[in-house]
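ugh ok fine here u go
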Amino acid sequence: MRDDLYGRLAPGPDKTGDGCMHFVEGMVMTGIGIAVAYTGVQQEKPLYVIGGVALALLCFIGTFVVVRGDGREKAAAEAGSPRAELVWQPAHYCYGCTSVFCPGGVPWQGTLTPEQFKKLVWTEAGYADQLPAGDKARDVEVPSQVRPGTS
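structure:
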């Protein structure tokens, strides 16, 4: 139950290096497409040329679409980080009851599971849409009475 506690309580997505890695992967795949096309030219096989060029173009365009999306997600994470810190920083985790709370009820009141807390932080920061598939926080509901600014 306490496995990967930091991941379950993460204040935001870790977007360091995603765009660079995706760019490198895409350019390698583009290079493979160019190599297939070149092989087709050398061996006089037009199907290889057409397939290689199509692969190279598809990978090249796809790479820039993915890298652009990574950039947008990273910008959203950086913009929301100060808002996330306002909710995340004063929170405390209780190992005995495995819940998260804010002493004194500021900036939010009540106790939450780690998944509810993560969803609350990410929602307040504006990047809840970046919760990865399979993350339990994606499917939980945060009770409305614990939202910052409500009582």
